[in-house]
Design goal:
By secondary structure, the protein is mainly α. About 75% of the residues lie in helices and about 0% in strands. The relative contact order is 0.03.
């Protein structure tokens, strides 16, 4: 909720009393930042007050009625504050202030804003081993601002000197794609991938490869498109979006053979892997890799037989929507072992409620399960006579 003091600043702006609004916003930002540095603001309540204070400056900057001397005073105050790295250390406050300064730049002289960016690049806010993000952000500000004021040659020189910044290189890639210069775009991407790999940034490599996928689609390069679509379909679990793109790239009559080749490849690869840990069993590895495929392809019997012999509650929850109605007998047998284990391990009401909720769900979704679940609930009540909370929750299963 916006503070009362800042509401006063809003009212001052409504009356075109910009000096009063500026003074209030300056005082709020400075005083609340002291509090920010001395406490835990996990909820973001204190930081939101600072951002609201900076918003006052935004509102003043957006007013056509503000006098030039007030604009100059705000810019001068921002110049001073931004050189204090504290505004960049505790959130996005520095970047928000910089955005205000940028909006004021046309009215105070562009050179002044460019000089501020240069000073910031040399300040503590942008120096040091952990300041790469800030350095890159400031350089992107400068490139964008130079382009906005028509100084394309200087912007181009800065771009050429900072091709290691992903967004800078990406801008050139997008320009090349727009001009259908796909060869240049791919050359730029190759350089970006090389830089990302040297820095150990696999997420950036993925980002570049997704652009290669886009280019392959534009070029009609089916082999490359399929290669990357398949990679992203399975790079971390299964991504349904890329799986469907990969599948859609094949004629329907070819797809069964393609997906079967993939399944057999996974089976062979996982079977050949050495297993060093008890939790890393072949059965569980195959389930993780192939269950999403069987679900996508609606191969229900293969999915049933893929379930590990000792499935967890989570494992059965994944297949429950697909198999509970199709294989009631088999699913009930698998649930029976899990329910007894859950009961043995349960020790508080929350766990008893989870047990009872699962029993009710089984009764609701699995045909012919009522008698077996009721019998199990009754036997557990008899087995644990001193667990009154369990007796109470399981009693609801029997109703």
């Amino acid at each position: 909720m916006r503070s009362t003091v800042l509401h006063t600043a809003d009212h001052a702006i409504d009356r075109n009393n910009f000096r009063e609004a500026m003074a209030i916003a300056q005082a709020v930002c400075l005083e609340v930042m002291k509090v920010q540095q001395a406490c835990d603001d996990s909820a973001g309540n204190i930081g939101s007050i600072i951002l609201d204070g900076i918003q006052v400056f935004h509102n003043i900057a957006n007013s056509e009625a503000v006098a030039p001397e007030v604009v100059d005073q705000i810019f001068a105050w921002l110049e001073k504050q931004l050189l204090d790295a504290t505004w960049f250390d505790y959130g996005d406050f520095g970047y928000e202030m910089l955005a205000v300064a940028e909006s004021l730049a046309p009215r105070v002289a562009p050179e002044r804003f460019l000089h501020l960016l240069d000073k910031l690049l040399e300040s503590r806010a942008a120096t040091g081993s952990y300041r790469e993000y800030t350095r890159e952000a400031l350089k992107k500000y400068k490139i964008r601002f130079l382009q906005a004021i028509g100084r394309e040659q200087e912007a181009g020189q800065l771009i050429a000197a900072n091709m290691d910044i992903v967004e800078v290189r990406l801008g050139l890639v997008e320009e090349a794609i727009a001009q259908q210069d796909f060869l240049l775009a791919k050359q730029l991407i190759a350089g970006g991938i090389e830089i990302a790999e040297s820095k150990g940034h696999p997420g950036t490599v993925d980002r570049w490869e997704k652009v290669l996928l886009q280019i392959a689609q534009l070029e009609g390069d089916l082999d490359t498109f399929r290669f990357f679509a398949k990679r992203f379909a399975f790079v971390r679990g299964m991504n349904t979006e890329f799986y469907q793109k990969w599948k859609a790239s094949f004629p329907p009559e070819e797809w069964p053979e393609v997906i079967e080749q993939h399944i057999q490849s996974v089976l062979a690869e996982e079977t050949a892997k050495p297993r060093k840990f008890a939790w890393d069993s072949l059965e569980h590895a195959l389930f993780q890799s192939l269950a999403p495929v069987y679900i996508a392809e609606q191969q229900w019997e293969r999915l049933l037989h893929l379930i590990p012999p000792d499935p967890s509650e989570h494992t059965l929850a994944l297949v429950h929507p697909y198999l509970a109605g199709r294989y009631p007998k088999e699913m009930l047998a698998l649930y029976g072992r899990i329910l007894e284990t859950m009961a043995d391990k349960a020790g508080n009401r929350s766990q008893y409620q989870n047990l009872a909720a699962l029993m009710k769900k089984i009764k609701q979704d699995i045909e012919g399960s009522h008698a077996a679940i009721d019998e199990l609930a009754a036997s557990l009540i008899q087995k644990y006579p001193r667990r009154s909370a369990m007796r109470e929750e399981l009693g609801r299963v029997l109703k």
